[in-house]
Amino acid sequence: MQANEQEMVAAVSRGRPGSHEAVMERYGQEVFALVVKLVPDVLDAEEVTEDAFVKAFRNIRQYNSTKAAFSTWLCRIAYGLAIDRLRQRRPPTLRLEELNVSGEMGAEDEELFIEEADNHQELLHRMLDAIDSLPPEEQILVTMFHLENRPLRDIAYITGEREGTLATRLHRIRKKLHQIMTDYDKE
Hints:
By secondary structure, this protein is mainly alpha-helical. It has helices spanning about 1-15, 20-40, 40-60, 70-90, 110-130, 135-145, 150-160, 165-185.
């Protein structure tokens, strides 16, 4: 896969016909998924995604495969542009997509399952609401690390921050979420 990625980068560098479209086809959804979490307006998110690809294509020779995967480099560019857009427009708080919880159990456990599922669903909704109450830059860190399972190294590259700094921020964000959840339980 890395060789294929390097071939795509080389093709874009040489201006090979169709290479730009191939890169956008391969990485477009991943980049858009990152951007739309920061820039919730779909049209703005699409524009930022397009801008990220334009910037990447213009600066393709600066890509260094020893520092990060090409997709991570693209996400770093997109992240920076999305943060710039946020600073310019200050959109409303990002609403994370709700997750469905489902499962199957035997008929004898159905009543217990329904009660546990309701409790789990309620906890999930409360947690998503707590995440939604965070500033967008904190939401995206939680999303990338906990929901997308991105390594801290990749997140550091995307955000331009050091891994240690991000680890500390994630720890503080988790404490903040815990406090929000605790306060909710007291209500």
